[in-house]
TrEMBL record:
<dbReference type="InterPro" id="IPR032675">
    <property type="entry name" value="LRR_dom_sf"/>
</dbReference>
<keyword id="KW-0677">Repeat</keyword>
<feature type="domain" description="Disease resistance R13L4/SHOC-2-like LRR">
    <location>
        <begin position="283"/>
        <end position="467"/>
    </location>
</feature>
<dbReference type="InterPro" id="IPR055414">
    <property type="entry name" value="LRR_R13L4/SHOC2-like"/>
</dbReference>
<dbReference type="GO" id="GO:0006952">
    <property type="term" value="P:defense response"/>
</dbReference>
<dbReference type="InterPro" id="IPR044974">
    <property type="entry name" value="Disease_R_plants"/>
</dbReference>
<protein>
    <recommendedName>
        <fullName>Rx N-terminal domain-containing protein</fullName>
    </recommendedName>
</protein>
<dbReference type="InterPro" id="IPR058192">
    <property type="entry name" value="WHD_ROQ1-like"/>
</dbReference>
<dbReference type="Pfam" id="PF23282">
    <property type="entry name" value="WHD_ROQ1"/>
</dbReference>
<dbReference type="Pfam" id="PF23598">
    <property type="entry name" value="LRR_14"/>
</dbReference>
<feature type="domain" description="Disease resistance protein Roq1-like winged-helix">
    <location>
        <begin position="7"/>
        <end position="46"/>
    </location>
</feature>
Amino acid sequence: MWASHKLFPKYSLEVLKRKSLMKIVQGNRLWVHDQLRDLGRDIVRQRAHFKLEKQSRVWDHEELIDVLEIKEGRENVEAICLRFDRQFQDFIEKEESISLSKLRFLQVDCVDLDESNGQHFPSTNLCQRNLIMLPNLLMLSWHNFPVYFKFITICLKKLMILDLSRSEITDEWEGWNHLKMTKNLKVLNLTGCGNLHRTPDLSAHENLEQLILQGCMELVEVHGSIGRLKHLVLLNLKYCGKLQTLPDEMEEMEDLRELLLDGTSVTKIPEWNGMEKLETLSAASCRLLSELPLGNFGSLVELDLSCSSIRELPDSIETMKNLRILRIFDSMLEKLPSALGKLERLEEFYASSYGCLSGENPSEIGRLSLEKLEKIHASSCRYLSGEIPSEIGKLSFLRILTLSGTRISNIPKLPESLTELLPNLTGLKKLQDLYINDCPKLVEVRGQLESLVYFDLVRCQSLEQLPDPLSFKHIQIYRIASCWKVEEIQGLEAWENLEWLLIYNLLLLQKLPDLTNTKNLYAFSLEHCPRVVEIPGRLESLQILNISGCGSLHQFSDPLSLKNLECVRIKECERLEETLESDEYGHLKKVRRASLESYQISEEYYLEVKKWGEPIKNFGLEN
């Protein structure tokens, strides 16, 4: 639509995105910041010299009625947002005709329009008289369009975008015939049209680029005329729960780039030959989907088979040379194909599963040419066992590796962007977040992790050796929990960027290093470490302190340094309770009292919880 009006806003939109004044949200829609919206409205008012009848855009319903009543004001208006309520009906009834010759955008919201009101409206006039003339209308958005309302005298020849989301229209709706005059229609949005059982004959709309049928729960058939849509780029059939089959004619859609089938009841995706430009195929939550030929999808960039019944990926997946994102989590897939290693451009691989994925890791995955792979998510694959192939160290771009809840026993040397047992992770020079949870057989994590920001190590009961602490130059959040064989945490004294230190259930831990140099330490939590006797060092930046179940702990080496504390919780620490009676712990006691009385945590804490997610939620101070 931009190009047809010789508008090329790509650069300007990028500038606004960088300044967080706008963004592209779900459904390829523009979200605009309130400040930018208000600025635009001010510009409209100024250009109209603050005269309502001269405004090119009207967004207030009451003002719109005033503009329409001033007939000369109709000549200027280009964009309207209105409520289709009884007040507007009454206005229409009084008018012989309404001509808005410059109107390009019309958004209608139905309010207080039940069937009795709709029948009261003189639909015969609309059918027989040129009551409303919008010769240049480009976009019509009318959610909850009432099927009994006949709005057929609007001139729609230039219409490019039609949005009738959540309307009562059916496949028998009379309006389909009227819409055949819209030869330039680019976007048809029928999201949530719950009475639609079949798509209409769309052969008149050969220029259509986007067809959105998401959430049409009663849809059971896609009309074969869809094959005539040679320029269709997006077909969205998400959550059409009763749709079981796709027409063979779809293979004629030569320009299709996105096919979204999530949540449908399709059992098979045909072996189409014509979709040479298809880049995204999403079939998540297709619980009945068990067959997927991949040989003809060589252009795919993203494939999502999550929560499907696919049990096997054919070796023909190797033909998908452009694939960058593969999602198969919670599917019925039983093993990974060896051909997976031939996907040279794969960047993200998601296989997390509570299902059937099992067996040894195919060695091909490591020795492949997965040179661009950045993310591997394989958490909760509880039957996945054996060693990670040593060739994983060649994945020089790998940033995220998630293996929580697997039976992996050994991790070799990892790439420079991550890192060794897990493998040696020294090669993982770009790795920032490392989560290792529920790996009961893991005994060692080795490697230099120079870029690591977030380290999360939980329930690795056999783990004895931690990664080289001197490499943690950028670590900000460090959590270690329920690693029962860990006796010492070394190197903490050198972590100048550390902000959150969370230590839980280390039964053999006896000593903490001096924390004086952790100048940015904001929150410290120590729970159920029964052998720790002292917290050494000056903690001048500490604001949140949580200590629980540490029966041997009896002192801070420098309690007077705790001058910035804002929230304190201490419980089940009998020896420390005795020490707190000393005068030098006066500030700590005062803050502790205030924390107990108010049960409030600082706003900054909640911001951090939101930022870092589940590991921080377990900090324990909410109670």
